[in-house]
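Why should sequence recovery work at all? Because a backbone constrains its sequence more than one might expect. Tight turns favour small or flexible residues, buried strands favour hydrophobic ones, and helices have their own preferences. The token representation captures these environments compactly. In the example below, the structure is given first.
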């Protein structure tokens, strides 16, 4: 592999555009290709950031060294497996897949071929910048809300797999313990998939986590509370406030750090460094599979 990596993006929608822009501005990376079932979209993105538009998957893989997958979620698993079988490290937007068999196959292919897989849990970059992961033991309780107004995007999956999965990943990342029980409620408001959901997850070590998510809310809310025996951390990501009564130092200005300001950039940079043999992605294939398993457990708990 040359010192300059040729990056390719599958999916020329909103997030595909974000990925293309980051690759185009990264050092020692060139945007080599864009693939989308709508040729005019692929061409438009290639024209903006360089590279070529592709309609054929094999030709696309032949032209790139690393791949970002930013398609609708239902295609993530199939495309990630195809990329790995073509010998390409792959960055997959969340969810890593929509069925556990595909998520497990991604992890297995990556291990078999010695290839890097990253999953796009972008908030890991911000929480790392805050110092949250440096706290030496897991919290006792976690409560989080992620509510937003209606959107036409990501309706191929439920609000659990679309939005709540970020917070499920955070809970899994904060403790080495496994989920023990899941209780949940959900509602279909405007779409065939769940638009609102709440869940409570108990972990084997006693950690309790509560989640609320909506994609049809009248007002936006993004809050997080972590309760430790030594104090609490309260975060409002919309009001940009951080209250910390624990003895551990957290950076209240984390959103102004490079990783806090550009979470996708930080996540892609970690992926590219891992591809070059330096470090690891912020979230790997196993992380993506675990988060998907828990999200599906939440859906199952409400009969989804």
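From this structural description, the recovered sequence reads:
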């Amino acid at each position: 592999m040359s010192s300059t990596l040729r990056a390719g993006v599958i999916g020329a929608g909103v997030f595909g555009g974000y990925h293309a822009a980051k690759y185009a501005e990264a050092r020692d990376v060139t945007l080599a290709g864009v693939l989308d079932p709508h040729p005019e979209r692929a061409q438009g993105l290639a024209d903006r950031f360089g590279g070529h538009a592709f309609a054929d998957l094999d030709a696309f893989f032949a032209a790139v060294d690393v791949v970002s997958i930013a398609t609708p979620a239902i295609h993530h698993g199939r495309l990630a497996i195809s990329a790995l079988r073509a010998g390409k490290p792959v960055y997959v937007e969340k969810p890593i897949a929509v069925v556990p068999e595909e998520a497990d196959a991604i992890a297995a292919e990556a291990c078999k071929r010695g290839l890097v897989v990253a999953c796009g849990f972008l908030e890991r970059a911000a929480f790392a910048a805050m110092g949250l992961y440096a706290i030496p033991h897991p919290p006792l309780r976690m409560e989080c809300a992620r509510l937003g107004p209606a959107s036409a995007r990501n309706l191929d999956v439920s609000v659990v797999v679309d939005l709540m999965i970020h917070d499920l990943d955070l809970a899994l990342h904060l403790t080495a313990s496994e989920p023990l029980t899941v209780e949940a409620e959900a509602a279909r408001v405007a779409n065939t998939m769940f638009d609102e959901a709440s869940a409570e997850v108990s972990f084997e070590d006693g950690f309790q986590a509560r989640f609320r998510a909506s994609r049809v809310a009248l007002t936006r809310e993004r809050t997080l509370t972590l309760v430790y025996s030594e104090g609490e951390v309260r975060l409002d990501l919309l009001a940009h406030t951080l209250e910390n009564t624990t003895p551990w130092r957290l950076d209240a200005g984390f959103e102004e750090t490079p990783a806090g300001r550009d979470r996708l950039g930080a996540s892609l940079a970690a992926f590219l460094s891992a591809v070059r043999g330096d470090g690891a992605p912020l979230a790997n294939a196993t992380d993506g599979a675990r988060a998907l398993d828990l999200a599906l457990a939440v859906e199952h708990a409400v009969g989804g």
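A few observations help interpret the result. The CA atoms of residues 139 and 228 lie 5 Å apart.
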